[in-house]
Design brief:
This is ARMC6 protein. The chain has 467 residues and is mostly helical. The protein has helices at residues 8-20, 26-39, 65-78, 82-98, 100-108, 111-121, 126-140, 149-161, 166-180, 184-192, 195-205, 210-222, 236-245, 249-257, 264-277, 281-289, 292-302, 307-320, 324-332, 335-345, 350-364, 368-376, 379-389, 394-409, 415-420, 423-433, 438-448, and strands at 451-456, 461-466. The protein is built from 27 helices and 2 strands.
């Protein structure tokens, strides 16, 4: 992906030049322009790679199809022609969903203000409101900066007034979610505006709707993200605590899971959100007390063939295992064997290998009894197989090294069996390949009883020292 940027007009002019100066047909002209800019390291992800529509008879400038639709929508809104607004909203939404480049071009040309005006015009007309909010969601997808305070207020007010309407609630929550991804200020503004009880309330109110439960759970999770690179310190931790302490979020999510025992996609989403809320020891324990651990283990067993679900459940188990008492509950529930099975079953999947090793690593930490269970269940061998399968994946290497270290740090009897599995060579290779693995690999080798080569950075000399 290139790092340089160009304007849409620059690309369009290059295409037009290829057509007029070099007599290329339109498709060839676009291909040539793409090749030309990409060879110069230009990022074209936000560029519409198509030929603009010809100029109209009145001499109007050439425009891309989505801008022509936007013009039609703007005229319909200005004329308060509700039937035409409805038709143009559907067309515009479909075009926005095709690709980010279309949404970006529309966003750069005033689409948000037109769509916001359409939302206001639709007030009181439920069907038109649905179409308008679908469009707002589409234009905000990947462009959270477009939303302003008036848009935030409109969304919050709609979610309050139409809380009993599942479809409008779903449409509003999708807008909120898109507006908060990678945008810390929007998250903080929505939380201050009272969005958290609206999201948990939607899950309770529409607990029989898979779409509402899944989307509201996802929106809650987004409130705990720290993904806006423009902000050095976000409120992710504070938002997680508010969801749990002020909005009974753990109970709401776990109760919701009971209605979808056969719906792995909903349960996976709920697991992912629970993992983001496991920020305190008492929260981890509460998840177990409410029955959350039981549904996670059952879901892992039932969905072992579905990698996306497996990854989310492993991540959740890893998160709640931060509590030492919960570690024992997880092992007693039989999760250890399932985690090892998940790693072995999805050995080609680096994310599952990483999360599986990390979960076992947490279970082994400060718990010699759990280490016995993990060793008996083949956990060390699975981790080493993961290292062998993914030598270039630093996250896999790091988590596997930490697991090995935790297994032997208080149970030295495991050192020889693990060494016989080929651990020393794999860990040494990880240390040599990945700078980020150096400390954990060195610690694992030391606790295995291996000789560790230390780099004396201040002299440039190397020495060997039995650790």
């Amino acid at each position: 992906m290139g790092s340089k940027q160009i304007a849409q007009e620059t690309f369009d002019d290059a295409v037009q030049e290829n057509i007029t100066e070099f007599e290329m047909d339109p498709e060839e002209a676009v291909r040539e322009a793409v090749q030309q800019f990409e060879s110069q390291g230009v990022d074209l992800s936000n560029i519409v790679k198509a030929v603009r529509q010809p100029a109209s008879e009145n001499g109007q400038k050439q425009k891309h199809e989505i801008l022509l639709t936007l013009d039609s929508l703007g005229r319909a809104v200005a004329d308060s022609d509700l039937a035409e607004v409805a038709e143009q909203l559907v067309t515009f939404t479909d075009q926005c969903k095709e690709q980010l480049a279309f949404r970006y071009l529309a966003g750069q040309n005033g689409a948000y203000s037109v769509v916001f005006s359409a939302c206001q015009l639709a007030s009181g007309d439920r069907n038109l409101m649905l179409k308008a909010f679908y469009t707002l969601s589409a234009i905000l997808d990947g462009q959270p900066d477009l939303l302003d305070s008036a848009g935030q207020d409109l969304l919050l007010q709609t979610l309050k007034e139409y809380r009993e309407d599942a479809e409008l609630t779903l449409a509003g929550i999708r807008c909120v979610r898109h507006a908060c991804l990678k945008h810390e200020q929007n998250r903080q503004d929505f939380v201050k505006g009272g969005v958290l009880p609206l999201l948990t309330g939607a899950i309770v109110q529409h607990g029989d709707s898979a779409d509402v439960v899944r989307t509201a759970s996802s929106a809650l999770r987004v409130m705990t993200f720290d993904d806006d690179i423009r902000v050095p310190f976000g409120h992710a931790h504070d938002h997680a605590k508010m969801i749990v302490l002020e909005n009974d979020g753990l109970r709401v999510l776990i109760e919701a899971a009971k209605a979808f025992t056969d719906n792995s996609s909903v349960l996976s989403e709920l697991c992912a959100t629970l993992s983001r809320l496991s920020v305190r020891n008492e929260f981890c324990q509460e998840i177990v007390d409410l029955g959350g651990l039981n549904f996670m283990v059952a879901l892992l067993a039932d969905s072992i063939d579905h990698p996306d679900v497996v990854k989310q459940v492993l991540s959740a188990i890893r998160a709640v295992a931060g509590n030492d008492d919960v570690k024992d509950a997880i092992v007693n529930a039989g999760a250890t064997d399932l985690i090892v099975l998940a790693i072995s079953h999805h050995l080609a999947n680096p994310q599952i290998c990483e999360q599986g090793c990390a979960a076992l690593c947490m279970l082994a930490l400060r718990k010699p009894e759990n280490c016995n269970v993990i060793m008996d269940g083949g956990g060390a061998l699975a981790a080493l197989q993961a290292m062998k399968a993914h030598p270039r994946e630093v996250a896999v290497q790091k988590q596997a090294c930490m697991l090995i270290r935790n297994l032997v740090s208080r149970s030295r009897d495991f050192s020889q069996p693990i060494l016989e599995m080929g651990a020393e060579n794999l860990i040494t290779e990880a240390r040599a390949t990945h700078k980020d693995c150096d400390d954990v690999a060195k610690a694992a080798l030391r606790d295995l009883g291996c000789k560790v080569e230390l780099r004396e950075l201040w002299t440039g000399q190397k020495g060997s020292l039995a650790q």
